[in-house]
Amino acid sequence: MTERKLIQLAIKGKETAMDSLYHKYEKLWYRLCLRYADNSHKAQDIFQEGLFNIFKDLKQFNADKAKFSTWSGRVFVHAALRYIRKNQWQQTFEELDESTGNHPLAQDIIGSISARELIQVIQKLPTGYRIIFNMYELEGYTHKEIAEQLDISIGTSKSQLSKAKNLLRKKIDQLF
Amino acid sequence: MEENRHELNNFLRKKLNQIDDTSSKWDQPNPEIWQDTKALLRKGKAKVWYLPNKKWAMAASFALFALVSYACFLQIRVFNLQQLEQEHFVIQNQLKQTKEQLDTALIDLSQVKNELIQIQKVQAEKLTVPIESDAEQVPIPPSSNINPPEIELIQSTSTITSTSKQKVLPIDIKNTLKQESVITNQINHSKGIVLPPIPTLDWSLIQQDYQPIIIKDEPSLVQNIIQVKRFNWPDFKIELIHKRGEHELIRETFINYTENEDILDIDPLLFKQSSYGLLGSVSISDRLTVNTGINIGQIGGDWNDDWELLVGEDDIYEDLNGNELFDIEHIHGSRWSLLFNQFTYQNIGGHDTDEDQFFLFDLYETYQFKTVQIPVQLEYYYPINNLKLSGLLGYQWNRITLEDYYAEPDLLHFGQDWNLNTSELLIEEEEAYLGTSYSNIQVGLGLHIGLTKHWGLSTRLLFENQDVYDTFNLGLDTWNQSIQFGLYYTL
């Protein structure tokens, strides 16, 4: 059965179709949640909210405009942002006194660690760094989009991304 | 650089999506989450409710709350109007009864007078018969035996309770008639004239003392346009307030009909109110603000549910043959108003109104008051997400002055052949000098919802305790409530 057909049946409330969709994407979605949260408990909260929103708003998905994985990923990102905004927004984008040295991320460094280790390192980033790093590097948002979503300036977004990368590099280095 | 970014992104995504270390299930969500989510989807509601649905649902809840509050306000207002109508209906009925009683009393009085006149004529004829006449001498009956049977009927109406306001008219017709019968026996033999032969009712004074008034806030719709200006510290807020609603003015009336009869009358007068004001707020902490300002407005309206009873005084002088020599009629009373105004009513004329000793008139009155209110309030905010609850405690000083007053009497006719025109009833010495102050304590609850970054809605339920200037110790302290709705903008 095609993904489009599964989605149509899920919209009509067919539980088997919903189960199929869920099992197809659960790990992708959950890993996304793990990247935005700093621990698995919060990730599960975000996961539940995102999951509910996806199936509640499934009618809004337009297969002609985006892939389901992309659309559902955005839904989870929004759920994560709402969760973080609700719980720890105040200190999220405070400037942290991290080293401003340039530590570019390179494929050779990242390639030497597992996905789990990479996510664990991302989780250890300060919330603001983590969000901007995830949104820019992994979800493909532009700095302008990030600034609008997070109600910050473009400069802050760029600055935080740069610092996030430096910190991530340092933390990856510490693994070895 | 952009190319490098895409390469890195793709690499990261692949890395993060690669299936590794599957035995630990670190990337496996708890299966119960999916079961719970399906259950929630079946119920059609979420465990936790996030924006933007939450925002609009809050706005909808607020609108619903506002509508329900307004409906309650209208309901209370309708209820009050119904109460007033009922009271008006009762007053009208009692007025009608009073009129009937007065008519009956006047007719009976007229009959008694006619009989007395006949008796006097007979007596006069007998007394003027020459001693040397051959006619049989008629014995003069003692005055105590003169009372005719009709007097008993008159006594039954001697005290007339007229309205729900308990205006009691102590008309002691019995004593007056006794006095009259004594007078009729006082004969001036030298001139052959009886003075005065007609009952004289000396109930000419009606005095009303208006005691200090109290403005009582009825549940009223208050519309606020709130503009917020933010500085670093302290936060400063200016509110432009427009109030519309109804105010109930309680008038304590002291009526003195006779030296022994003091009557207290309390009239609720319902007037429309409109005011504008400025309210400034300064935050003294994250959650506490001090509000103060000034509110200037007008209260005004018509009031015609008031009536007065005046009693005429009629002196008729006749010769011994019963022929009318002259007739002087005085219809006069005075109303003394301590706070509103003072004026007297007078009518002096030659009307032959010996059958019409009483009359009522409606008094159509128009009031215009000016109000000044100065509140000092402490408001505590408790934030819950986008929502803020607030509690308010305040003190308000109020000043009210009478700006304008107009009164026009409208006569109600009584008795037979009553022919007095309204224009003949004069109102004199009109002077307004009302001015009174009072204060009240305010307790309130508020709800503030931010809809967007700049705009928001707010509402307050305000309870106000009236410090009543109760000169008669009637315990009129009351709590009154009002509802405020506001739209605010944050810079």
Topology:
The complex is a heterodimer of chains A (176) and B (491).
Chain A lengths: L2 H9 L3 H22 L3 H17 L11 H21 L18 H4 L4 H9 L3 H12 L4 H8 L3 H22 L1
Helix pairs in contact in A: 1-2, 2-3, 2-4, 2-6, 3-4, 7-9, 8-9
Chain B lengths: L1 H16 L13 H13 L9 H75 L22 H7 L2 E3 L6 E3 L2 H12 L2 E2 L4 E2 L12 E4 L3 E4 L3 E9 L6 E21 L5 E22 L4 E16 L3 E12 L5 E13 L5 E8 L8 E27 L2 E26 L13 E3 L6 E16 L4 E12 L12 E12 L1
Parallel strand pairs in B: 7-19
Antiparallel strand pairs in B: 1-2, 3-4, 5-8, 6-8, 7-8, 8-9, 9-10, 10-14, 11-12, 11-14, 12-13, 13-16, 14-15, 15-17, 17-18, 18-19
Primary descriptors:
heterodimer, A: 176 residues, mainly alpha, 9 helices, 70% helix, 0% strand, globular, B: 491 residues, alpha+beta, nine-stranded mixed beta barrel, two-stranded antiparallel ribbon, 5 helices, 19 strands, elongated
Account of the 3D structure:
The complex is a heterodimer of chains A (about 180) and B (about 500). Chain A starts with a helix and ends with a helix. Chain A has helices at about 5-10, 15-35, 40-55, 70-90, 105-110, 115-125, 125-140, 145-150, 155-175. By secondary structure, chain A is mostly helical. Residues about 45-50, about 130-235, about 255-260, about 330-360, about 415-435 and about 470-475 of chain B have low confidence and may be disordered. Chain B has helices at about 1-15, 30-45, 55-125, 150-155, 175-185; strands at about 160, 170, 185-190, 195, 205-210, 215, 220-230, 235-255, 260-285, 290-305, 305-320, 325-335, 340-350, 360-385, 385-410, 425-430, 435-450, 455-465, 480-490. Chain B is built from five helices and 19 strands. Helices cover about 25% and strands about 45% of the residues of chain B. In chain B, helix 3 runs antiparallel to helix 4 (about 150-155). Chain B is an alpha+beta fold. The interface between A and B is medium-sized, with 37 and 32 residues.
Number of helices of chain B: 5
Based on secondary structure, the structural category of chain B is alpha+beta
Query: What does the overall shape of chain B look like?
Result: elongated
Spatial arrangement of strands, main beta sheet of chain B: 7-8-9-10-14-15-17-18-19
Give the N-to-C terminal Cα separation of chain A: 45 Å
What is the element string of chain B, with H for helices and E for strands? HHHHEEHEEEEEEEEEEEEEEEEE
- How many β-strand runs of chain A? 0
Low-confidence stretches of chain B: 45-51, 131-234, 255-262, 331-358, 413-433, 469-477
Could you state the oligomeric state of the chains shown?
A: heterodimer
What's the alpha carbon Rg of chain A, rounded to whole Å? Answer: 17 Å
Question: What number is the mean pLDDT of chain B?
Answer: 60
Instruction: Give the % helix of chain A.
Output: over 70%
Proportion of residues in helical segments of chain B: 25-40%
First-to-last CA distance of chain B: 39 Å
- Largest sheet of chain B, if any? 9 strands, mixed, barrel
Please trace the helix and strand order of chain A, writing H or E for each element: HHHHHHHHH
Uncertain regions spanning at least 5 consecutive residues of chain A = none
Shape of chain A from CA axes? globular
